[in-house]
Amino acid sequence: MHKYPHTVPQLTNEGGAPALREAPITSYSDEHASIAAIFVMHDPIHYYRDLQICMDVLLCPRRTKPVRLYFSNPDFLFSGVHSEPRLAAGAFRVCLEALYKEYTGKPLQYTLFGKPYAVTYEFAEKLLRQQAEQAGCSISRFYGIGDNGASDIRGANHAGDHWSSILVQTGTIAKSTLPEELADYEVACVDAAVDLILKQAEQPGKQ
Predict the structure, then answer these.
(1) pLDDT in tens, 82-139
(2) How many Å separate Cα 188 from the centre of its chain?
(3) What are the boundaries of each domain within the chain?
């Protein structure tokens, strides 16, 4: 945006781009061809700007290899203080997918990290086991706590028999009725979930 303010004319016309001493460049040079990957780590604030730039990078005609695209959070909605769920990072992915399909006629290829995907739970489990080993103990049961059945609970339920899922009632997203999104336990809040875990740990054979 700084080098090519006319990338997104709407922002340029509204004063959203910085003032330049030199005349703006209206076509890209070779920067886009050298970009190897796009990482979407969080919800973009300026959807239009970031969708346009992502499309420019993905569709660069001088590219010899496809751009690798990564998303860190698949959640379409999240719970906040508003009475209804709000759009989350996954909504940006849906928008980019639709634009790419409309433009090219092909599905968008990407790698998705985050709940409920197994790699997230495998990584968390690995780190927890390493910490337990350093402390001179072991872990026999893991708990996944969350307020979203489609991500938090589904992910913990699919992570293995040594995982238990706990649904907290503090969210605003409607409780799921799908079998794979039903929690092993349901409590009022995170504090209650911690109390439940500690009580479970006090039972013989539990760690």
Answers:
(1) 888 888 889 999 999 999 999 999 999 999 888 898 989 999 999 999 999 999 999 9
(2) 25
(3) 5-112, 138-201
Residue 73 CA from chain centroid, whole number: 0
CATH class of 5-112: alpha beta
Three-class SS of residue 98? helix
What is the number of alpha carbons within 13 Å of residue 43 lying toward its C-beta? Answer: 11
Structure tokens at 144: 């996944």
pLDDT in tens, 43-91: 888 899 899 999 999 998 777 788 999 998 888 888 778 888 888 889 9
Q: Are 158 and 116 in contact (CB under 8 A)?
A: yes
CA distance from start to end of the chain: 52
At the second CATH level, the architecture of 138-201 is 3-Layer(aba) Sandwich (3.40)
Domains 5-112 and 138-201 share a fold: yes
Helix, strand, coil % (nearest 5) of the chain? Answer: 40, 15, 45
What are the b/e assignments for 14-37, b being 16+ CB within 10 Å?
A: eeebeeeeeeeeeeeeeebeeeee
Count how many residues are written for the chain: 207
- For position 52, what pLDDT does the model report? 93
This prediction's pTM: 0.68
